[in-house]
Amino acid sequence: MSGMVSTKTRYDAVAIALHWLTVLAILSLLAMGWIMTSVPPGSATQFMLFQLHKSVGITVLALTVLRLGWRLAHKAPALPDTMPPLEKLAAHLGHVGLYFLLFAMPLTGWALVSTSPFNIPTVLYGLVPFPHLVFPAALGSKAALNADFVNAHFIGVWLIVGLVAVHAAAALRHHFVLRDTVLTRMLPRFGPSRPGVAEPRFRHGESR
Ligand code: HEM
Ligand code: HEM
User: Fold this and answer.
1) In this structure, what are the phi and psi dihedrals at residue 151, rounded to the nearest 5 degrees?
2) pLDDT tens column, 68-82
3) Where are the transmembrane segments (predicted)?
4) Range of the domain at 15
5) How far apart are the C-alpha atoms of 63 and 105, rounded to whole Å?
6) How close is the Cα of 171 to the center of ligand 2, in Å?
7) Which residues share a beta bridge with 5?
8) CATH code at 157?
9) Which residue of 43, 59, 153, 160 sits with most ligand 1 atoms within 8 Å of its CB, as the best mutation to test the pocket?
């Protein structure tokens, strides 16, 4: 992602829409994940929540493919010049880590469902039958693979929770402490757009 910076002052509408749709999806997946693993096993509620979790999770995979494609084709606005190089590096590594987890979470989820002894079909949003992944026997027994994918999915949960917490805290620090445009340029701007007009906001290090 480094090297992909520009003189733009804001993220574009597509990047913003995909960012916040993803946030909504992840928060609902975490809630569903925890609820569905604590309701009575085998209940209709559990079945419904599993199907919804799988549907929204696969949606995140699709959104992330689109998003990464969009991101590689469209530069991101440069971080403020006044940011220390180590902080810029931390921001980039954080974003790379988030992208990694946005792929790893759905893929480990899909893989664990595909190797489950229950072998329950996935029907996205009750409408679209979704296939299971097939793993070559050389990779190990189905049961062993399933245990590994479940572990990876559960470890990923804590990694994404931790990274998102740091990421959100950093965004809030930029807005409320450093008072730069790093948060607002990722927020939707409603009302008429004013092309070419820079946002009248404080810059990093500027006195108030
Ligand atoms: C970004 C995407 C995802 C997130 C954030 C997420 C999050 C979670 C969470 C929080 C849990 C509960 C963990 C626990 O009980 O401690 C969970 C469990 C589970 N997830 Fe996901 N998930 C995602 C994608 C998927 C996908 C795409 C699938 C399947 C297609 C899936 C299938 C499952 C299943 C079957 C369980 C229950 C596993 C078990 O109890 O053995 N997840 N997920
Ligand atoms: C599930 C939660 C979240 C995920 C997975 C996520 C993921 C990401 C990713 C991957 C980027 C990099 C975008 C790019 O340049 O390609 C990004 C940027 C950003 N996110 Fe999030 N985010 C989440 C939640 C939040 C929250 C809660 C906030 C605000 C409090 C936030 C504020 C921002 C901001 C301001 C940027 C732009 C940073 C910059 O200008 O370099 N994000 N997010």
Assistant:
1) -60, -45
2) 999 999 999 999 999
3) 12-36, 89-112, 118-140, 152-172
4) 5-186
5) 13
6) 8
7) 76
8) 1.20.950.20
9) 153
